[in-house]
Amino acid sequence: MARHSVTLIPGDGIGVETSAAMQQVVAASGAQIDWEVAEAGAACMDIHGTPLPDSTIEAVKRNKVAIKGPITTPVGTGFRSVNVALRKTLDLYVCLRPVISLPGAGGRYDDVDLVIVRENSEDLYAGIEFEEGSEGARRLIEFVDESGAGSIRPDSGISIKPISVTGTRRIVEYAFEYALKHGREKVTAVHKANIMKHSDGLFLRVAREVAEEYAGRVAFEAKIVDAFCMSLVMDPSQFDVVVFPNLYGDIASDLAAGLVGGLGIAPGANIGKDYAVFEAVHGSAPDIAGKDIANPTAEILSAAMMLDHLGELEAAARIRAAVARVYAEGRCLTGDIRRATGLGGEPARCSEFTAELVRVLEEM
Ligand code: NAD
């Protein structure tokens, strides 16, 4: 079996615990990984004065593949999102998030099998902003007034929502290519083009153009985001591959995770042409950090996606099978899942759940 060098960014909060759990499970899967640990996040900021050292970017570039724990982003003030910076610097333009029912995880449905393809580099999420009262905000307000496009109150903070033809084309093409490669039948594009004609409208127009190129091979439909949310909650089985602009994809990811058992089990990946960074959907969960009660499944399933990417399909399949077995047995599950299933009983600690998973893997 080949050895692989992978950058590991444990991140903040529960990332420290879930990353350690993930490493143990990957080791038990039989995959041969050399971990190169790199720092980023709020704790890194306190020690090194930067939340994203150049050495961390270099480490990801060197290994081309990384897995990261979540990183705390201060709300409202403070440093800008390290996740956004990492995605931008490495041009990780795809955020890929499979949402699949896991029997025993307490999901609302047992037939969810969809894939979220979220654009990862544009939209309001790009973080292009002008503070209320700043010179930039003042000039923009003046420009908007003069343009006749509308008016903005003088005491407004402003966030810009750029959506480009290039950015949309490549994410929608990725969604269709993913569908073809994985035998999926339909791509749904989600938008609010009725209101935002020049950003979401562009997204929808380009999505339709790309869909034409795949006509007869992959079906296509478009949904307005509010109606999409209702349809998703009422019958998630109707969706297959769903492609979103950045912000709607962010929100829909948590919504969809909530349908299958919660953030504790939702994996993901940020993928670009040259690099891939795997990470769970959830954040650093400061409310439960350091208590050994976080659910590491999401990061462990993100590692399974990483192993697929590295061509270690057998190790990835073993991890998924072991997770499925531990959830189906239901004896050793963390508190979030016990609450979701309504099973009650003593929740397993993060370390106990991990040990159980390792035991099952060694038995398989
Ligand atoms: P969160 O995802 O950290 O937590 C939301 C809720 O889900 C909390 O109650 C938490 O305890 C629970 N939860 C999350 N993951 C869990 C797990 N693995 N096991 C059990 N319970 C889990 O969202 P938040 O509280 O809004 O954000 C906290 C911080 O994380 C913020 O600074 C935010 O910016 C950051 N964040 C980072 C990423 C990332 O690095 N990719 C993603 C989302 C949020």
From TrEMBL:
Isopropylmalate dehydrogenase-like domain location: 5-357
Superkingdom in the source lineage: Bacteria
Gene3D superfamilies linked: Isopropylmalate Dehydrogenase
Keywords: Oxidoreductase
ATP-binding among keywords: no
Record keyword Oxidoreductase present: yes
Family: Belongs to the isocitrate and isopropylmalate dehydrogenases family.
The protein, known as: Isocitrate/isopropylmalate dehydrogenase family protein
